[in-house]
């Protein structure tokens, strides 16, 4: 049934084509010449390698281009710098050993005091330079201002206020304060000042050019603070909120003196070599949690004596 139908359709198609050809010859119809337009295809970002080059030795492309007369552009490995602040602390202050413990009336305390007076000549010259660009600067008022900057910066850190923190700390100090604080809860409180803050060191370095001056002032601050750090599950990692501690710190406050809109910001801290080691971080794991739970269960059942 299918074969006779196919033969009938084929014969009908041939008859129609022959009739159309006869009509075109009788009417003298001319077909237009086909127009070829170049069309840009999709750019190939990956060109497969040529066949047979897998085992061959690869030539140096720079030497090959030099032989062909093509000049390779020299590559410069540049590192961007920020001129709003310096990259470190210039001529850092070296705190005397036993500071805040030795009395000035003792022999060793008096010796340290006389050494500080001798080394204060460079600080006086730096303070003169700072006063040329900041007429309101005084060492007495600046120490209290530095303490306020320190307190506001730590409050902004506990609240994760990035905009305020950037206005209170420099670009060098910001990553040092925020590194590792993700998914953690920080509770910090300034209790009281044990000693009035005072300026102990000042330097006025320049960077990039001779007139580009920066002011760095080191402030000694002895205070009582509380610090507690919790992990993302609310478990205590470090410190305590109820137990305050005596903290002796040497803060470095910096300002870009040439910039008329510059402000004093926290730049870093100086940690003396004789400072005591920090408290270890409390790490609570699932195994230690299971042990404490099983110990409590044994105490309830009477297998272990209950600690009073």
TrEMBL record:
Gene3D superfamilies, per database record: 3.10.450.240
Domain Tim44-like: 123-271
GO cellular component: mitochondrion; ribonucleoprotein complex; ribosome
Pfam families, alphabetized: Tim44 (PF04280)
Principal subcellular localization: mitochondrion
Subcellular location: Mitochondrion
Keyword tags: Mitochondrion, Ribonucleoprotein, Ribosomal protein, Transit peptide
Protein family: Belongs to the mitochondrion-specific ribosomal protein mL45 family.
Function: Component of the mitochondrial large ribosomal subunit (mt-LSU). Within the mitochondrial ribosomes, required to direct the nascent polypeptide toward the tunnel exit and position the exit at a distance from the membrane surface.
PANTHER family: 39S RIBOSOMAL PROTEIN L45, MITOCHONDRIAL, LARGE RIBOSOMAL SUBUNIT PROTEIN ML45
Protein name as annotated: Large ribosomal subunit protein mL45
